[in-house]
Design brief:
Elements (H helix, E strand, L loop, with lengths): L3 H13 L2 H7 L14 H8 L7 H13 L8 H8 L5 H16 L10 E13 L2 H6 L10 E11 L5 E7 L5 H12 L7 E5 L6 H8 L4 E6 L5 H4 L5 E8 L2 E11 L5 E6 L11 H6 L2 H12 L11 H32 L7 E2 L2 H8 L2 H6 L3 H15 L4 E2 L25
Parallel strand pairs: 1-4, 4-5
Antiparallel strand pairs: 1-2, 2-3, 5-8, 6-7, 7-8, 9-10
Helix pairs in contact: 1-6, 1-16, 6-13
């Protein structure tokens, strides 16, 4: 049986060469009708090539390593003009295709019989232009030449698959992004799914929305979130949350962290489904979404946008979400291989994601431009390459959070791309 990564590559390769897909997502009827130096599919593959360096160098390397046309020359100005003919929704559909394949397959690993998801938001920074400044309204005290946007992800916590992703202005709240994620998840979820939230998300409205869905939820509460919680000092008790004349039964759990801090959680998981001592480990799975953000920002380098327009920002954003799912798919298959090879080792090992991102450069674009006959073989070669140099799994690591941002350690990572 073909792995999920190979299956995704086959589907996406077929999609970007499909005439109806090209017709739907080119912005004008006359675009890509003549025999251009690089056509619609090649433009898509190039943008999916983890662009992080000077655009002209990226183009030259793409022509040399992927297209293998020594005499072909394309300027960055020509490419910038060409990419305007592709709607950013094309990349959103490519990402959505990968998401749908992941959810419909058995690729998502379960925890105690449950698929576990997490929702969290972050910010990205990019150069400000007139159009970007109008579309992504920044903070009043923001730098004159920089703009910020809020991004929000719904991820799976074991391998880090991105299930839904959005980008918008800072004025749009994390909860509003979360509602959009839940609308998507509601199409696929069942009673064996759990969604985990940090303490910025709980509200009566959010509990109402989640209670109407089939899935389970687990949210961390701030001390003053609900009066019903603060008035009860128990460690495992039930309360009712009232919203718009409807009462929703919820369970409140208090657990003590290693630091001595009391963490308050609210859930609709029953005592038969999860005992109180199991919630510390369950909520800790939420950290996976932070690891996904680390991969997106520090390995796939999402903030090194390849253009300075609203269109290019959206193209790059959804391209990166697709790439993240490719990294997660490869990691999942590599981890399965590592477990077989190192079953007798003292410590557990896992895939080196930085190497995976580096090995994907050029290779993934080449795969997507090939026919189905060779795609499976090329995907297998890439996965074998990514099995090199696994890293040990370091359990129960914790670091003190700096009080002020200027006290944070400045790291200088070695980028793979």
């Amino acid at each position: 049986m073909a792995g999920i990564f190979s299956s995704i590559c086959k589907k996406v390769s077929k999609l970007i060469h499909d005439d109806s897909f090209i017709k739907q997502y080119k912005t004008s009827k006359s675009a890509f009708t003549r025999n251009r130096k690089i056509g619609f599919s090649e433009n898509i593959a190039f943008i999916l090539n983890t662009l992080s360096r000077t655009l002209q160098i990226e183009l030259d390397d793409f022509i040399s390593n992927v297209l293998k046309k020594k005499d072909l020359q394309i300027t960055k100005q020509a490419f910038s003009k060409s990419r305007k003919n592709i709607s950013w929704q094309a990349f959103q559909e490519i990402f959505t295709l990968s998401r749908d394949m992941i959810l419909k397959s058995k690729s998502i690993k379960r925890v105690n019989g449950y698929r576990v998801f997490a929702i969290d938001a972050s910010e990205v920074t990019f150069d400000r232009t007139h159009d970007i400044g109008e579309y992504f309204t920044s903070r009043p005290n923001a730098s004159e030449n920089k703009n910020n946007a809020r991004i929000s992800l719904l991820t799976e916590v074991v391998d880090g698959f991105v299930i839904d992703a959005n980008i918008g202005t800072l004025q749009k709240s994390e909860r509003n992004f979360a509602k959009e994620h839940l609308e998507i998840l509601n199409k696929y979820c069942n009673s064996k799914d759990i969604v985990i939230f940090d303490r910025g998300y709980p509200s009566k409205e959010m509990i109402s929305i989640l209670s109407k869905m089939q899935c389970k939820y687990l949210m961390r509460l701030q001390a003053s979130s609900f009066k019903e919680v603060s008035e009860n000092l128990g460690s495992d008790f039930d309360i009712k949350i009232k919203y718009q004349n409807t009462e929703y039964p919820v369970r409140v759990i208090r657990i003590t962290l290693n630091t001595g801090e009391i963490e308050t959680l609210i859930t609709n998981l029953t005592r038969k489904q999860f005992k109180i001592h199991e919630f510390k480990k369950l909520y800790a799975l939420r950290w996976s979404v932070e690891t996904t953000y680390n991969t997106i920002k520090n390995k796939l380098l999402i903030e090194k946008f390849s253009g300075r327009t609203v269109l290019s920002i959206h193209q790059d954003f959804y391209a990166t979400m697709f790439l993240m799912n490719c990294v997660a798919a490869i990691s999942s298959e590599v981890n399965d291989e590592i477990r077989k090879e190192k079953s007798s080792c003292k410590y557990d090992y896992k895939a080196n994601r930085n190497l995976i991102v580096g090995y994907m450069k050029h290779r993934l674009s080449s795969i997507l431009l090939k026919t189905n006959v060779v795609i499976k073989k090329l995907c297998k070669k890439l996965i074998q390459l990514c099995c090199k140099q696994p890293v040990p799994v370091k359990l129960d690591r914790s670091f003190n959070r700096p009080i002020f941002s200027h006290q944070r350690k400045v790291s200088c990572p070695k980028y793979a791309i």
